[in-house]
Automatic annotation (TrEMBL):
Gene3D superfamilies from the UniProt entry: MFS general substrate transporter like domains (1.20.1250.20)
UniProt xrefs under InterPro entries: ATG22/LtaA_families, MFS, MFS_dom, MFS_trans_sf
Protein name: Proton-coupled antiporter flippase LtaA
Highest taxon of the lineage: Bacteria
Molecular function via GO: transmembrane transporter activity
Subcellular location: Cell membrane
Family (UniProt): Belongs to the major facilitator superfamily. LtaA family.
Keyword RNA-binding on entry: no
């Protein structure tokens, strides 16, 4: 079925994106990878709002999938770089718990946007808003590894 083919293609795109972005993460750091990925996801999602064409959806889905892997992987890399070793368990546990705790936001915003605007594709706007808020929240975070972080101790 077409949805299975899209699922496989999306996973291949996500894997390729994560591998390629890993190279950039190693050289530029995770924050530029996260910001670039979120911007591409937000901009890549906009055409879905305005077009009902299957080809547009497929192209956007593959672009979005290509960027999801890098954003996820670099988010973990970023946390590892700024986390003191003595609180790594707590910080990564909080990271995982927070992800689960707010996992309702995407679907809730998707449903709210559909209810407000009255058409299915508008749900994409709800998800794009959640991503834009995440982008705005990460921009002021300083990527420097504190002297007590795991990264700083590895370099010493």
């Amino acid at each position: 079925s077409e949805i299975i083919i899209l699922g496989v293609a999306a996973n291949v795109a996500a894997g390729a994106g994560a591998m390629i972005a890993g190279w950039f993460d190693d050289r530029l750091g995770p924050k530029p990878v996260i910001i670039t990925g979120l911007i591409v996801i937000i901009l890549g999602g906009l055409p879905i709002l305005f077009s009902a064409e299957a080809a547009v959806f497929w192209a956007c889905a593959l672009i979005l999938s290509f960027c999801v892997g890098p954003v996820q992987a670099s988010s973990r890399s970023f946390l590892a770089r700024i986390t003191p070793p003595e609180s790594a368990g707590e910080n990564f546990g909080l990271y995982a718990t927070t992800g689960r705790a707010v996992s309702f936001l995407g679907p809730a915003m998707f449903a709210l946007a559909i209810q407000i605007f009255g058409f299915q594709r508008a749900g994409t706007l709800g998800i794009l808003i959640v991503l834009a808020v995440g982008l705005a929240l990460i921009i002021p975070v300083r990527p420097d590894a504190p002297a007590h972080s795991m990264q700083a101790r590895e370099k010493a």
